[in-house]
Design goal:
The protein is of the alpha/beta class. The protein contains eight helices and seven strands; from the N terminus they run αααβαβαβαβαβαββ. The longest helix has 16 residues.
């Protein structure tokens, strides 16, 4: 068994043991696959991790950048207490429409709102609307724009806000300073920004599994 097959086998074991099958989540994945959405959503055990992190944070407000079919949105919205709210940003109107259907099927239409448009611009509008501050933020959109997402997110944060950014290892390519891959460049610049920002305390972890070799960056807004 090669490494990737072994990673996937371990993922399957962990999910089977710790993340039972769920009707709404399974339906969201199935609807996304039927609609031809790319299979780039978080894995079930990663979704459960986000859910637990938001609960440990005792988040009442969540901001998500990158909705896709709403799979991670459902995980995060379920972490919220009664009266909590989630805002998720999606640039593709077809994806946003499907995500809305998946969210409604999960019984979370009153909790989660999908806003359609370029996330960089929507983040500015949210600041103008005096939205937030958000307790928990999940960044999982086009990596090229991670630095701009971070700037927008910080304007909507408070001391104690947790920011999680997905897909930051890029199969190990994050170490390539000479790359011309805009997504890797965006991740590297994101790391430079969080490392150099005195408001943030940050770390990152590598992950392996059914989604390959990747990882999360995690920051806490300190002031």
């Amino acid at each position: 068994m090669n490494e990737e097959a072994q990673w996937s086998a371990v993922d399957a074991y962990l999910c089977d043991t710790l993340v039972p099958s769920d009707t709404a989540l399974d339906a969201a994945l199935e609807a996304s696959a039927r609609a031809g959405l790319p299979n780039i959503n978080v894995s079930p055990n990663q979704g459960k991790l986000l859910h637990l992190l938001a609960r440990m944070q005792e988040a009442r407000t969540v901001l998500e950048i990158g909705t896709l079919g709403g799979y991670s949105t459902i995980w995060l919205a379920r972490a919220l207490p009664p009266g909590g709210s989630l805002t998720t940003l999606e640039i593709n109107p077809d994806y946003a429409r499907l995500a809305g259907e998946n969210i409604e099927r999960a019984g979370l239409a009153a909790t989660a709102t999908v806003r359609v448009g370029d996330a960089v611009h929507t983040l500015r509008r949210l600041a103008e609307e005096r939205a937030g501050p958000f307790d928990f933020v999940f960044i999982d959109a086009k990596k090229e724009y991670n630095p701009q997402y971070l700037e927008g997110v910080l304007a909507l944060s408070r001391p104690g806000t947790i920011i999680v950014c997905d897909n930051v290892i890029r199969g190990g390519r994050v170490t390539d300073s000479a790359t011309d891959d805009p997504d890797v460049q965006g991740v590297r610049r994101y790391f430079e920004l969080v490392a150099g920002n005195p408001r943030l305390s940050s770390t990152a972890i590598q992950t392996v599994g059914s989604k390959g070799w990747d990882g999360f960056a995690i920051s806490r807004v300190e002031r």
